[in-house]
Design goal:
Chloramphenicol Acetyltransferase, alpha+beta, Dihydrolipoamide Transferase, OB fold (Dihydrolipoamide Acetyltransferase, E2P), 4-stranded antiparallel β-sheet, 3 domains
Length: about 425
């Protein structure tokens, strides 16, 4: 039985095996954890679904494999062969023993773009991330194709060392490097060699991209290039909100350990305000879906959470139906699991709008990039005190918050976006209306 790299979400294309719990030759049974994987969003343990012997480990700990790739083989315990050695992904395939139950890899049609979700496209073969076929009938593994593209190597000039003449990563790594023209510094240089040529060799250190950073780069580049953004900014008076929050926290009941049952943040109220505003302006509670617009019944609010090396946006489902204290408790739990990379795909996929709050860093005002498939994202800056004129002509000081709403013009026109932002402002400036 082949053990495959599982799919952990519609936009997840590969996973990194961080640990093997079993060794080759060891007995396994259903429920036994085989290995731990880490994607750009989560980490999880993968259990066995059958009884037998772990006959072969094809992807060792520390290596990355595409979704659907065979990472190990479990053989029938009765006829199991002795323990096999681990075969690295890029190793020459002839070095690996062939199990009696193994079947030859089927031919795969030419590589073509496939949709992982309506807003994110990658280049990959059609089936199971298997080898792609060159015009001469020779197949190429995905890793070899990627390495060749990065190095500028013509695959048609290589002789494959894999089964049936397949070109594997080793063939690309040992191929002569193509001659390169002198690099000329130019605006917009994007390849590693072009960018590095602009700096002295000792002026930097190279930091490899992990799965999370690659996904963020790809999705947000796609978003800013394909979504027609427009931006609306408003100043929100928040003195009433600050007072209500303080009173709520002071009056919070005690838990069994003697601490307070909850501690509300301004962000908890902002989540609730945006959810209620989307219910008040249903035309904005929507997403672009290619040839149609999806309008949602509930307001599912994604909230950006900063992680080491990236961010993720867990979703508070049906936020308009939940109290501020319930939203606060849910966000604390989601944020903790996000930082431990323990979120499930259902925790961060979907949503109808998002919030990005940089106020805690002292950022006064900013514009955020829409996170597909959302049609809006609310960027929240830091609270500030400023002088305002009183009705009698005197001067007083008040607290304000700058919020900027980024809108997808395919879904919302300017008037609808303005109506949504006005509704958010109204709820935050009269926060008691969020409690009824």
């Amino acid at each position: 039985m082949d053990v495959l790299m599982p799919q952990l979400g519609e936009t997840v294309a590969e996973g990194k095996i961080t640990k093997w719990f079993k060794v080759a030759g060891e007995q396994v049974k259903p429920g036994d954890n085989l290995f731990e994987i880490e994607t750009d969003k989560v980490s999880m343990e993968v259990p066995s679904t059958t009884t037998g012997v772990l006959a072969e480990i094809r992807v060792p700990a520390g290596d990355i494999a595409p979704v659907g790739a065979v990472v190990a083989v479990i053989a029938d315990g009765l006829g199991a062969r002795p323990a096999q050695t681990v075969v690295p992904v890029a190793a020459k395939p002839t070095a690996a023993p062939i199990m009696a139950t193994a079947q030859p890899a089927p031919a795969v049609p030419d590589a073509r773009p496939i949709k992982l979700d309506p807003f994110f496209e990658v280049r990959t073969p059609e089936r199971n991330f298997g080898p792609a076929r060159l015009s001469g009938g020779v197949t190429v593994t995905p890793l070899a194709r990627r390495l060749a593209a990065e190095s500028g190597i013509d695959l048609s000039r290589l002789r494959g060392s894999g089964p049936h003449g397949r070109i594997v990563a080793r063939d690309v790594a040992t191929a002569p490097q193509p001659a390169r023209a002198p690099l000329v510094a130019k605006a917009g240089a994007t390849s590693a060699d072009e960018v590095k040529a602009l700096f002295a060799p000792d002026a930097y250190e190279e930091v490899p991209l992990d799965g999370m950073r690659r996904t963020i780069a790809a999705r947000l580049t796609q978003a800013i290039q394909t979504i027609p953004h427009f931006y609306l900014t408003a100043d929100v008076a928040i003195d009433r909100l600050i007072k209500l929050r303080e009173e709520a926290n002071l009056g919070a009941p005690k838990d069994k350990d003697g601490g307070t049952a909850f501690k509300l943040s301004l962000n908890d109220f902002i989540i609730r305000a945006l959810a209620l505003a989307l219910q008040r302006v249903p035309a904005a509670n929507a997403a672009w879906a290619g040839d149609r617009i999806l309008r949602f019944k509930h307001a599912d609010i994604g909230v950006a959470v900063a992680l080491d090396g990236g961010l993720i946006t867990p979703v508070v489902r049906g936020a308009e139906t939940k109290s501020v204290s319930a939203i606060s408790a849910e966000m604390k739990e989601l944020a903790a699991r996000a930082r431990d990379k323990k979120l499930k795909p259902s925790d961060y996929q979907g949503g109808s709008a998002a919030i990005s709050n940089l106020g805690m860093y002292g950022v006064r005002e900013f514009s955020a990039i829409i996170n597909p498939p959302h049609a809006t994202i609310l960027a929240v800056g830091a609270a500030r005190r400023q002088a305002v004129e009183k009705p009698d002509g005197g001067v007083a000081f008040a607290s304000f918050l700058a919020v900027t709403l980024s809108c997808d013009h395919r879904v919302l026109d300017g008037a609808v976006g303005a109506e949504l932002l006005a509704a958010v402002k109204a709820f935050l400036e009269k926060p008691v209306t969020m409690l009824v």
